[in-house]
Each structure stands twice: as C-alpha cells, then as structure tokens.
Amino acid sequence: MKRIKGKVVCSSNDKTVSVEVVRLYTHPKYKKRVKSSKKYHAHDEENRCQVGDFVTLVSCAPVSKTKKFMVSEVVPKREAAPEETVDLEIMKPLEIAIAKLRAATKAAKS
C-alpha cells in the first residue's frame, strides 16, 4: 500500500479533504533542487481533519471518481513542528546546516 504525507488545504466537503503533498527532487539537466506540489482528494470518514493538519494517506480502492486515498493518521496543526514538514534525508549537507541554524535562531528569539 502506498503511503504519502501532506498538509490539509481544504476540508469543506463532507467526508472529503484536499491534501497538498510537496516533494523535492533534483532536476535531471541542471542538478538543482526543485520543489513540486500536487493535490490529492482523500476520504475522511469521521470528518476529523482541519485545514493545516498534517496527515498520512494510504492508497485504497477508489471511493469516487477522484478519491483513491484514505486518511490513516492525523497530526493536528498545533502539535506539528516545522521540522516535520522538511524531509532531511534528501537535503544537501549545507541546506541541513542552514535549516538547523534557522531553527536555533527562532528558538533563541522566542
């Protein structure tokens, strides 16, 4: 079963949420890191997702024409840390150092 993680951007429909999944990849010709995003519709049986929540989607049999994923795990917006949104294992070492430095300066300001 395919699992993807993303952020809820719309939850106004009944039992349906729109989830934006952001991925980083290296451009084949220019070797530069590129960020791309894609929206998926997912089935949320209990209407427990709110805008801004981070969710894990699991592929399933099609529920409707556009819904081919089901919400399996919800991390509320207030509990999710900014570090969870960035996948550190695909970042370059310099970018990791910059991200840690920014996190340290934010903590010092607070």
Overview of this structure, please?
- The chain has 110 residues and is α+β, with helices and mostly antiparallel strands.
- The protein is built from one helix and five strands.
- The chain has one helix at residues 93-109; strands at residues 3-10, 16-26, 33-43, 54-59, 67-75.
- Strand 2 and strand 3 form a beta hairpin.
- Belongs to the universal ribosomal protein uS17 family.
- GO terms for molecular function: rRNA binding; structural constituent of ribosome.
- It is found in: Plastid, Chloroplast.
Tags for this entry?
110 residues; alpha+beta; five-stranded mixed beta barrel; 1 helix; 5 strands; Ribosomal_uS17_bact/chlr; ribosomal protein
Beta content comes to: 35-45%
How would you state the average pLDDT, rounded? 85
The overall strand count is 5
Structural class: alpha+beta
Distance between the termini: 41 Å
Strand order of the largest sheet: 1-2-3-5-4
Q: What form results from the Cα inertia axes?
A: flat
Helical stretch tally: 1
Q: How many strands, what sense, and barrel or not for the largest sheet? A: 5 strands, mixed, barrel
Low-confidence stretches: none
One letter per element, helices H and strands E, the order comes to EEEEEH
Assign a percent range to the helix content. Answer: 10-25%
Q: In angstroms, what is the radius of gyration?
A: 16 Å
GO cellular component, one term: ribosome
InterPro entries: NA-bd_OB-fold, Ribosomal_uS17, Ribosomal_uS17_bact/chlr
GO molecular function, one term: rRNA binding
Main location: plastid
